[in-house]
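Data availability (excerpt). The following record was deposited with the supplementary files.
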Amino acid sequence: MRLLICAPDIFEGDAVGNHCLGLATMAAHSGWNALAYAQRFDTSISHVQPIESLFSEVTSEDLLYVSYSIVDPLLDRLLALPCRKICYFHGVTDPALLREFEPVTADLCEQAFSQLPRLAGFDVIVANSMHVAHDLAPYVDVSSIVVIPPVFESLPTFGDNAIAHRNPNTFNMLVLGRVVPHKRVEDAIEVFARVVEGGVDATMTIVGSMPNYDYSKYLLKRARALGILTRIDFTGMVDDADLLSSYDRASLLLSMSRHEGFCIPALEAMHRGIPAVVRAGHAAAEVVNDAGLVINERETAGQIADQIIALRNDASRWDALTQRARARAGVLLERTSWRHWAEVFDCALRGTDTP
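Predicted structure:
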């Protein structure tokens, strides 16, 4: 059997690209002939091919997997292909969160929302979280959507699950992910400043690509105005070894993002026994559940900082949270195993809704 995996963009280091490539590897190890296609991709990845070649090569015997996270101009052509089809829905970012600094991306997200009704044309839909699955409630039966997190246990960040040791003498707050507007890195910087004002000799590490010059400049200016720029390390994108080192130095993970389809950094941190602090209102809260701090959307930076300081000063609560974090990560990672994907593929081929 051939599995044809496609997305508008497939690049290593990007969450969607990593997921497509990881699925191709897992399927190949399980006997599938897995092929990847994209409109834009890194030509150094030899097993990704131009999307147009998919349209000339596909047969009715193939299984098509479409990764969807932003408007896809080829969606109707893909739906018209003669094979069985799976859509993996990552969710679409609210355009309002992008409008100020990324108006072009905001427009693409608006167009994506208008495409969502057409996702009902897939034989099986898989979502990365229940929160994201409910975005499709007006168009499909949510109970038929399979939820599988967008990671694989083979990723380097899941190779070592030793509990991070609590060191009361150092306190490093890790912010991880692309430095883009909807991640609200400025809010994380504000919380960090309040933690320092609260008497904690803290540092912050911000790991992730910084593709938006105006937004990056805004963050640096804000950190300087708050008097904590010298305490913050903006690393940019890092390799796997440096990413693991960032987790090793981290006391907790802080995400003030206003939208996450899943929040992979929270899962990675919990797997390593690092408490995660996330905002409510999107899928990160679903990932963390009771294994971290889920912050009400209306809470101020000062209120969030007070909760972080209280957690830091309560050793027994901290230790209990690290244990819950590891347990929660284990539950989520089990859902990513080949067994669940095999059931999805089987359902798509048989034409049934759910495993």
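Summary of structural features: Residues 39 and 334 are 32 Å apart (CA to CA).
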